[in-house]
Write a structure and sequence with these properties.
This protein is 35% helix and 17% strand. The chain is of the alpha/beta class and 167 residues long. It starts with a strand and ends with a helix.
Length: 167
């Protein structure tokens, strides 16, 4: 059975920067949970950041790919460089994925870690740009298909294709 990596906040874990969650009631997530498919991660807390914590954004162009390449930084709203925690958390998420032979992930969009379509632009003005977060970038670079909470139906189709190819 193919496992699915998922952001812990989408499963109701109160790990987001503000101390809350982003729980999704999508039926596929519930079914995958019941089937024992889901492997939960929070790259930010797994990387050593507390909950709650000041919001953080990627500073510099290139999004998470640039952070992984050490060409951009992640800073919190107090100006503290938290890049190391974000990279560490992304590396831990990749280790977890590899340990379970995971090839698909559902991550929270907008997050500087998990964003797969957009992240905030580094100005702390709530403006978004079309880039990916640090964890999403590292997972994609490692061949893992990354979806967000609004793409779970597409993830379901991809998962079915993966499992059909195994037969």
């Amino acid at each position: 059975m193919q496992k699915v990596l998922v952001s812990a906040c989408l499963l109701g874990a109160k790990v987001r920067y503000h101390g809350g969650d982003a729980a999704s009631a999508h039926p596929s997530l519930r079914r995958w949970f019941e089937e024992g498919r889901l492997v939960s991660v929070c790259p930010e807390t797994d990387g050593g950041l507390p909950t709650p914590r000041p919001p953080a954004e990627i500073v510099g162009s290139g999004g998470g790919r640039a952070v992984v390449s050490r060409l951009a930084l992640v800073r919190n709203s107090n100006g503290v460089d938290v890049t190391a925690a974000f990279v560490n958390g992304a590396e831990r998420a990749l280790e977890v994925a590899r340990a379970s032979a995971i090839r698909i992930a559902i991550l929270k969009d907008g997050s500087p870690s998990c964003g797969s379509r957009s992240v905030y632009d580094g100005t702390f003005t709530r403006a978004r740009i079309s880039e990916v977060g640090v964890t999403a970038a590292l997972l994609r670079a490692s061949g893992i298909q990354v979806f967000n909470e609004d793409e779970i139906d597409e993830a379901q189709v991809w998962l079915e294709r993966l499992e059909a190819a195994k037969k």
